[in-house]
Amino acid sequence: PTPRGHGRPPAAAAPPLEPGPGPPERAGGGGAARWVRLNVGGTYFVTTRQTLGREPKSFLCRLCCQEDPELDSDKDETGAYLIDRDPTYFGPILNYLRHGKLIITKELAEEGVLEEAEFYNIASLVRLVKERIRDNENRTSQGPVKHVYRVLQCQEEELTQMVSTMSDGWKFEQLISIGSSYNYGNEDQAEFLCVVSRELNNSTNGIVIEPSEKAKILQERGSRM
């Protein structure tokens, strides 16, 4: 028997929808799609496409961040991009992309980081490393600090005033007693040689000034007294 009522017969179930592309991925959202695994010379690095995309013209961005990558690279069995470069110098490259600072440990040479920065085509980092290398070369070319020496002869009563009034960068180095050569009244006045020095640039008008031989001899004599 047909059931009474005014209801309509149930409609046929709709076919399941095909999965669509979904909403665009947010930079801070989750999901494995935003993470990138790199195999650099046998060492694995994990980072995000957002980090690698901070230098749009770089090798890494063109390899990993574009929908239709300009560059092609093989992947290993884990799905990591294979990059045949030295992993030792990749750390400073990746850290620069992460926080924008150049950090090079004592074990690494700036020239090695520069080589990798040029390979990955990170122009801002190339400029930064070159500036660091130039600064180091300038400091090295200056060489050790040189000094100019003066030997001052004074009496015992003048010694305190002379030392206390030294200026213009002069510093006390050594005091050498040369005996009592003068006699005033009934008292002998001891005499001293006071060696003072001042830092000197490598050259003054292109002429390098070395400590005088007299100053060196007096220093040697004083060290034996």
TrEMBL record:
The BTB domain, residue ranges: 34-137
UniProt-recorded Gene Ontology molecular function terms: cullin family protein binding
One cellular component (GO) term of this entry: cytoplasm
Domain of life: Eukaryota
Positions of the UniProt region annotated as Disordered: 1-31
One GO term (biological process): protein homooligomerization
Feature: compositional bias, Pro residues: 12-24
InterPro entries recorded: BTB/POZ_dom, SKP1/BTB/POZ_sf, T1-type_BTB
Stretches of the chain forming a coiled coil according to its record: none
PANTHER family according to UniProt: BTB_POZ DOMAIN-CONTAINING PROTEIN KCTD2 (PTHR14958:SF22), POTASSIUM CHANNEL TETRAMERISATION DOMAIN CONTAINING PROTEIN (PTHR14958)
Stated name of the protein: BTB domain-containing protein
Organism: Gulo gulo
